[in-house]
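Final report, Chapter 2: Outcomes

The project's central promise was a pipeline that accepts a single protein chain and returns its three-dimensional structure in a standardized token representation, suitable for archiving and comparison. That pipeline is now operational. To close this chapter, we reproduce one record exactly as it appears in the project archive, with the input sequence first and the structure output second.
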Amino acid sequence: MLDDFMVRAALAGIGVAIAAAPLGCFVVWRRMAYFGDATAHAAILGVALSLAFSMSIFIGTMAVALLMALTVSVLSGRGYAMDTLLGVLAHSALAFGLVAVSFISGVRIDLMAYLFGDILAVSRGDLAVIWGGAALVVALIGWRWSALLTSTLNEDLAHASGIDPKGEQLVLTLALAITVAVAIKVVGVLLIAAMLIIPAAAARPLSRTPEGMAIAAGTIGTLSAVVGLRAAYVFDTPAGPSIVCVAALIFLASSMIRNFKSVR
């Protein structure tokens, strides 16, 4: 069954959706959209380093994404406006990554595949990495779910409950780095943040509990992956952007439902 490239692509998209769903909810709740964007943009520098030192793309992108996320966490609140800091780091990392790639000789690099994803070229080995990373992210978020919710709701309440908000921030940082590393093959660095944010944002008006929102986000992400792949096949469009377009349309429908309920 896995010999069919469309089946492998669908499984890869579902794996990324499962990894991004619970993490995306916390990104939305904490208003960390630009934080996710900066971490994703840093991944292209990880690709360059991986190719330069002949090591796994997954390891290189995860290491650089984690370093970027930790850098943002350390520098935040030290005299820099957060949006300015994220803008500088995100675009600088992307630019340095693209420049670094140009210095690598003897290796043929398809930048479009890393920028916008190449889900149709996913191999069995890629599937193992994607699903392994997704399982790790879900396990990590599930393990710290209650503590993460408490620290997201109120840091003072978290301290009173014996929870370290900084420690929970590190858990989210690690999960974000893993998600970026597994998603780069599917949607590329420029669209990873979209898969984190859009399904979670679309699920928010349809959910009454945090757990329900995470499940709804995973469902929307999975539906976006499957329908987006089908649309790309029928209309001969890029697969990664097609997946994000479907997620955006679902978000639009979700927003209309919310507005209709508020009018009533």
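Archive annotation: The CA atoms of residues 83 and 135 lie 31 Å apart.
This record, like all others produced under the grant, will remain available to the consortium after the project formally closes.
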